[in-house]
Amino acid sequence: MFKHKLTNLIAAAAVAITATFSLSHARADELATLKDSGELRVAMSGQYPPFSFTNDQNQVVGFDASIGEAIAERLGVKAKIITTPFDGIIAGLLAKKYDAVVASMTITPEREKAVDFVGPYYHAGRAIVVKADSSIQKLEDLNGKIVGVTLGDAHEKWAKAQGNLTVRSYKGLPEMLVDLDAGRINALVMDSVPVMVAVKETGQKIRILDTPNIEGGRVALGIAIRKNNPELKAKMQKVLEDMLADGAYEKISMKWIGSDIR
After folding, report:
1. CA–CA gap between residue 101 and residue 158 (Å, rounded)
2. Residue 39 CB: number of other CB atoms within 10 A?
3. pLDDT tens readout for residues 108-155
4. Which residues form the signal peptide (predicted)?
């Protein structure tokens, strides 16, 4: 009887060890799979200049695209840029349509329940943008006004939570700026960096409200990957830290933004 119980215990322990090893191996598989495939599929909207947009050669370029390509290169693989609407970008990641999201995504507790983040890879501030000659001077002046936001981003959620704004959602910044200039919206709410870069190119006259205490005034943005991939996360984090340390990140940031936005 004792021998039989001992045999059962040994068998059970073996199963447990095998299961633990299999789980550990499965969690490491994604990094190995990427290296085997030779490709890192990177998702972004393609509608968010200067972070991701389509150039005259029909190529998706920008800060996010360059960061994704640089990370892939240091992982020893090639980057495949995939554009997809931002509001469904996490769902696409979980469905394994791509391997990472480099799309200026704000790190939030809600998103951290669904995905893991590498980074932050830059920081930005929430901006309330109006036309230069607008009568809107402070946050309270937005009461009852129409504001534009990017569909699915953290600023859309913030604007809708205010309860006193009419919120109009857009796929990207260019359409928002056109509607702001035409008076179809009174303001737009989004990260400050892309707005400043965009209007520098278009010559559009805008003003950013002074809102030092606004929620999300300075936020961290990260690279999203699927959960339970500790080796992939650690490797990508190390690659990003190396880029920050050796000047590669600053070079990309200066090219697309004109300043170091880490």
Report:
1. 22
2. 14
3. 999 999 999 999 999 888 889 999 999 999 999 999 999 999 999 889
4. 1-28
